[in-house]
Amino acid sequence: MTQLRPDATPAAFDPAAFSVVPPRTFEDLRVGEVFRAPSRTLTDAHAAAFQTVSADNHPIHYDAEFARRHGHSAPVVHGLQVLAFTAPGATLFPHHIGEVFVSFLELSCEFLAEVHAGDTLYPALTVTALEPRGDNGVVTTAATVHNQHGELVLSGQHKYLLRRS
């Protein structure tokens, strides 16, 4: 149904009205803000799909007997697959900053514990620093992934460049 303004003319279409969340600027962000991703339970199918895409054919990732012979309880999910769960797009963060986003500058991480098919992962990005740089600003986030037991399995950092208002 077309919405009519009081003067009986159709309201103008505004694509900005279709934002998932209200857009924010660098100045609107606050240290300590947390952007969580929905939990996900990894399956053998997820691991197999990542193995196909990454071309990583090490048997530690798909051969249960090889994994057991090398001290693991089951095949180990690829570390880069776990890191991928910290992608900003898995959270609402890029929806908030979409209007001012310039680039993803860098990332680092430490793999702290094994992840196996059947584990449920809980990723989050927490703003830890906001550094103005001229017309832009650098946002640093702590990237974390916990498993269903509350164990921190990945800890890292992301940096993004945003335009300042």
UniProtKB/TrEMBL annotation:
Residues in MaoC-like domain copies: 31-143
CDD domains documented for this protein: R_hydratase_like
InterPro entries referenced in this protein's UniProt entry, alphabetically: HotDog_dom_sf (IPR029069), MaoC-like_dom (IPR002539), MCH/BMMD (IPR052342)
Pfam families per UniProt: MaoC_dehydratas
UniProt family annotation: Belongs to the enoyl-CoA hydratase/isomerase family.
Protein name: MaoC family dehydratase
Organism: Streptomyces griseoviridis
